[in-house]
Amino acid sequence: MDQYTEYIIEMLAFNPAGDGPRSHPVNVRTLQGLPGKPGSVSFNEITMNSLRVYWNPPKKPNGEILGYLVTYETAHQDENYSKQVKQKVTTNSLVVSFLEEQVTYHFTVRALTIDYGPPSEGNVTTGPQDGSPGRPRDLLLTKSASSVGLQWENGASGKGPILGYYVEAKKKEEEKWLTVVKLENGPQSDFFLSYQNLLPSTTYLFRVISYNRFGISLPVYSLEEVVTPSKIYLEYGYLQQRPFYHQTWFLVTLAAACVVIVTMLVAILCVKSKSYQYKRKCDEATRTLEESINTEDLGFAIELRQSARVKTGTLGRRSLASSSGALVKPPPRPAPASIAYSDDESAKAYDDNDDGSSVTEKPSLSSSESQSSESEEESVRSNPHSFVNHYANVNDTLRQSWKRQRPVRNYSSYTDSEQEGSAVMSLNGGQIVMNNMARSRAPVSGFSSFV
């Protein structure tokens, strides 16, 4: 049976007559054992002093894989740098650094369950691989206030296009090269390295390595050294060399401008809000005023309708009376200035005329008209400042004579279309001239002119 494998077990009995019934199946798993060896070991991202090693899980794990043990050492023993390194990992890959340049290493990988199983092995040499690009040429350095510039010429691209470059640096007194930056923008011939990526007051040497998908090229080295500025310059002096949009004064100005803009926006929004509230209140007040005006107009219209109804009734009654010849237009008002009389004539007229003997009687009116006339007379009497009471108080004898005198003019034939003018009335032998021109309000001597 295989290790760490699940099985289904059933039991049955048999005799010469045949097999008996099977029992209920039972699931069981065997115990773990040592794992098989991992898949083939491969390498990529190989540089002058680093690489990435990866592998596949074992085909027969024989248990639960808990991790791997990676061991590497130089393939050829060398007293200067030969050593064995062991490293435990839980993934299927490992990045190995600080290797010797252009040295072959032997790698072994073992899986772990209850213990480590057999190893899977592989060899690799650091540096250029088959198909790698050619070495760049003529590396030049230029110093500036904030960075060091590197310029070079590219070599052959190899079996694939150049994908980028490794820019490496090392201190003058050391032997290990360190990758400062990895460029991944394709072919190029220059790069500016900031001092912020380097240590202050240190002498550096530089080199550039190109790479493609097959591997790296041999490096091109700089012929001159570069001394980085001091820490004080890097912390303060370098700040003066930064672009203006990185300097403090620009950032402060930008922040102040943003605050001003935000404040103005808030103020504008507040004003707009107040204006909107004021407009809404004005609209509500206008709506309320319109509703009140509509209510008043409705009441006024009802009053006009009622007044028109009353006038319609009165006009109807008057038209009925006029059709029977009973309604006549009242005579025009006399002008007191044209009255000529004597005391003898007035006394004689008063003595000769009896009540109702020479009085011009008006045609009989309907009861409603008589009631309205009586009410109008009562209103006139109740007003002490009316025009009629004023003239009645002037001369009672004249008033009585005028009331009893029959006018010369026949008023029953007077119509609205007839032009009003001067009228002459006889008063017991005398004459009364009445100027009743339209809008004639000339004052009369001896009488009040307040009307």
- The level of helicity is 25-40%
Distance linking N and C termini: 142 Å
Structural class call reads alpha+beta
Radius of gyration: 66 Å
β-strand amount: 25-35%
How many strands?
Answer: 21
Number of helices: 6
Mean pLDDT over the full residue set = 75
Tell me, what's the shape? Answer: flat
Pick out the low-confidence regions.
Answer: 324-328, 335-388, 408-424, 447-451
The string of secondary-structure elements, in order, is EEEEEEEEEEEEEEEEEEEHHHHHHEE
Most strands sheet: 5 strands, antiparallel
Helices and strands in order, then pairings?
Blueprint: E1 6-9, E2 12-15, E3 18-22, E4 26-29, E5 42-44, E6 51-54, E7 67-74, E8 84-89, E9 93-96, E10 104-112, E11 120-125, E12 137-143, E13 147-153, E14 164-171, E15 178-183, E16 190-194, E17 203-211, E18 220-221, E19 226-227, H1 231-241, H2 248-323, H3 343-352, H4 367-382, H5 387-392, H6 396-404, E20 422-427, E21 430-435
Antiparallel strand pairs: 1-4, 2-3, 5-6, 6-9, 7-8, 7-10, 10-11, 12-13, 13-16, 14-15, 14-17, 17-18, 17-19, 20-21
